[in-house]
Amino acid sequence: MGEPFDLAPDRARERLLSRLDAIAASLAQRDDAMALLALGSAGRECGRVDVHSDLDFFALVRPGAKPRYLADLSWLDAAHPVVWSFRNTPDGHKALMADGVFCEFAVFEAAELQAIAYAPGRWVWRRDEVDSTLASPVRPLPQPADPDWLVGEALSNLIVGLSRCARGERLAAMRVVQVHALDRLLELIDRGNAAGNALRDPFNVDRRLEQRLPDTARRLPDWAGGYHDTPRVALALLTELEQHANVPAPVARHIRALAAAAQSAG
After folding, report:
1. Structural contact between residues 98 and 80, judged by C-beta atoms closer than 8 angstroms
2. Which of 22, 81, 6, 99 shows the shortest CA–CA distance to 57?
3. What's the DSSP call for residue 181?
């Protein structure tokens, strides 16, 4: 397999977009294929493509053909040799191509798209009978959560995580505090970031955070300190939550007492 990180940005973009064209050409030769919809950085946001980008897409097929396309990836292998793949959802696969291009894709019948939330995409190829408006989702994208819910969830995560840490469950504690509580805090901060909307991933608050929220990103070492640092991180997250919301004093006292107990427990 060739080196996956040896391309300049322009060449990386050309490789990824050319690969989509090759997949589209493979599908177009099959009577039961209907369209190829590119998503993510290979979709409407081609300017973001770099050497580390993967290939996200939907292959649309005729009714009844979906199981064949999921069971036999020869249509994808025809575009470029696939060296590894696995079925990660009922509808799709993840796959690695011989030159390092990583693919995440799903196969759908066109009618299924009406029940799926996805970011607007770009048609690489489609038959005339495929409704062009399906490039944008019918089902609305996830909406920002209520701020009170975000604060409540974050505080609950701190309580549960610190309790587990004091019990000696450090891995579970790290994940509850430094993943779940942190995500809720980032969502809370992100609600006020209108300038970063163009870079926001509607499904993952952490995507491109360093570019969207550079001031917040500088705090991440305090909020994601690692396996041994959960009590200190929890206190830092609590302090930040207090800057954004009215944290009830009994809750704050309880979290700080739990942090002290977790630190004492080693």
Report:
1. yes
2. 22
3. I
Report the distance separating Cα 255 and Cα 236, nearest Å: 11
Q: What is the pLDDT of residues 228-257, one digit of tens each?
A: 999 999 999 999 999 999 999 999 999 999
Cα dihedral angle (213, 215, 219, 220), rounded to 10 degrees?
A: 30
Per the structure block, which two tokens stand in for 89? Answer: 């959802």
**Exposure pattern of 64-90 as b/e (b: 16+ CB <10 Å)?**
ebbeebbeebebbbbbbebeebeeeee
Contacts of 130 (CB under 8 A, 6+ apart): 34, 35, 60, 110
Round to whole Å and give the CA distance between 226 and 243: 23
pLDDT at res. 189: 86
Tens digit of pLDDT for each residue in 146-162?
899 999 999 999 999 99
CATH code of 9-135, in short, is: 3.30.460.10
Q: Where are the domains of the chain?
A: 9-135, 147-264
